[in-house]
């Protein structure tokens, strides 16, 4: 099985590439190394003899440089930070939508199957507030309404979903779409705008300051979290069963098994690192931030018998072990 991973030097893409390589798949990465940590991940791929084509997926002409005929293309390529939408919408549209358009044309040319990593941010902002105010543990599913303002980032991901469906209808491309929520684990270099859990743990480990940002600075916003290996397990299972299960949309996340608010995440990080740090309150809320998201994995469980294996404490323990083992290297990237 030959697999091309677009965005293969990012957090999800690099972990997935190595995971599938260990399953004896032929893997090729495509990544323009736009982030500092991508160079480190490219070195990780080289250790497993995984080639990376350093090209910009937004430029269609670059695809002629790829000497590879994949059975499956996995689209992990995207601008990972939602907040960049407000500062540079053109960049987000290029990196998230145009790149997918070009990959679909490459997929059509090579007669490949297509797996797209979409985002939980395709759901409207108002829906998050509605769930948060209900004071009940509600989950987002494949049938939750997508009508309403999402952010430019969410718009590009949702537009890509629609585009994939159109290409499937017009050209017979077989696809799977995974709406992936907050994902974390080893080799994620967390920033304020993305990689929340790894950032929180790293700051506690190194006794550095953090902020509760938005929603009155209360730290009450809620997320679920998915461990990277659980996501890789799912995609491996989807590849194996692609001939029988295709043209499907799934929500993928930590679900009710692994969710938290920032206050509880702080307590968990304190417990693991044995450190307490100063956390300031920033009351102002970004227009793009949401107070609540928890995924439903019921469709995945029904179709693939797949569920997450790791809860929050297990995720933090494994990520902390990685941080301790690679501390000197990681200091250059966090």
Helices and strands, in N-to-C order? EHEHEEHHEHHEEHEEEHEEHEEHHH
Residue windows where pLDDT falls under 50 for at least 5 positions: none
Can you tell me the overall shape? Answer: globular
Largest sheet: 7 strands, parallel
- Helix residue percentage: 40-55%
What structural class is derived from the secondary structure elements? alpha/beta
How many distinct beta strands? 14
Fraction of residues in β-strands: 15-25%
What is the arithmetic mean of pLDDT?
A: 97
Distance between the termini: 35 Å
Order of strands, widest sheet = 3-2-1-4-5-6-11
- Number of helical regions: 12
**Rg over alpha carbons:** 19 Å
Describe the structure.
There is one protein chain. The protein is α/β, with parallel strands linked by helices. It has twelve helices and 14 strands. It has helices at residues 11-21, 36-47, 84-87, 89-110, 125-133, 152-171, 196-205, 228-240, 262-273, 298-304, 312-325, 327-330; strands at residues 2-6, 26-30, 51-53, 72-75, 113-119, 175-180, 183-184, 210-213, 222-224, 226-227, 248-252, 259-261, 279-282, 292-293. The strands form four sheets. Strands 3-2-1-4-5-6-11 form a seven-stranded parallel sheet, sandwiched between helices. A three-stranded mixed sheet has the order 12-9-14. It has a two-stranded parallel ribbon with strand order 7-10. Strand 2, helix 2 (36-47) and strand 3 (51-53) form a beta-alpha-beta unit. Helix 1 crosses helix 8 (228-240). The radius of gyration is 19 Å and the shape is globular. The model has no long low-confidence stretch (mean pLDDT 97).
